[in-house]
């Protein structure tokens, strides 16, 4: 068994697609109408057969409440691994990404946290 799709709640699918593809550099893999929403997934550009990130609408009240509460408490909704966190931090800053935590060493890990503009805090991690 392996993880093939993981999801993140977003306030606006179009805005999220723009942010995750244009600012972060993920590649759109699927974009299929599903009722009033869409099944939109993205993948890493260097692993297009890897795990897909689903931009899940937060339309359900429980999803919206969950998203708002973890954001308010400063809890990242998910994390992405990077090879060089300082280089990635600089690249994302240049792309206009707003960080709430700059790269910080925590034991064997270095993490940073940014706002995805779609209701989530996202952590990047270098092992």
TrEMBL record:
Q: Which residues form the VOC domain?
A: 1-127
By which gene is this protein encoded?
yurT
- Upper taxonomic lineage: Bacteria, Bacillati, Bacillota, Bacilli, Bacillales
Protein name (record): VOC domain-containing protein
Question: Per the record, a Pfam family?
Answer: Glyoxalase
**Lineage top rank: taxon:** Bacteria
Species in which this protein is naturally found:
Paenibacillus albilobatus
């Amino acid at each position: 068994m392996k993880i093939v799709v993981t999801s993140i709640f977003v306030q606006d699918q179009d805005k999220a697609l723009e942010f995750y593809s244009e600012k972060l550099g993920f590649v759109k893999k699927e974009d299929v109408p599903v009722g009033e929403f869409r099944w939109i997934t993205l993948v890493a550009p260097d692993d297009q057969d890897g795990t897909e990130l689903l931009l899940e609408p937060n339309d359900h009240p429980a999803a919206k409440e969950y998203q708002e509460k973890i954001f308010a408490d400063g809890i990242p909704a998910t994390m992405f691994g990077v090879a060089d966190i300082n280089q990635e931090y600089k690249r994302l800053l240049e792309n206009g990404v707003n960080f709430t935590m700059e790269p910080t060493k925590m034991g064997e890990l270095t993490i940073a946290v940014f706002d995805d503009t779609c209701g989530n805090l996202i952590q990047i991690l270098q092992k």
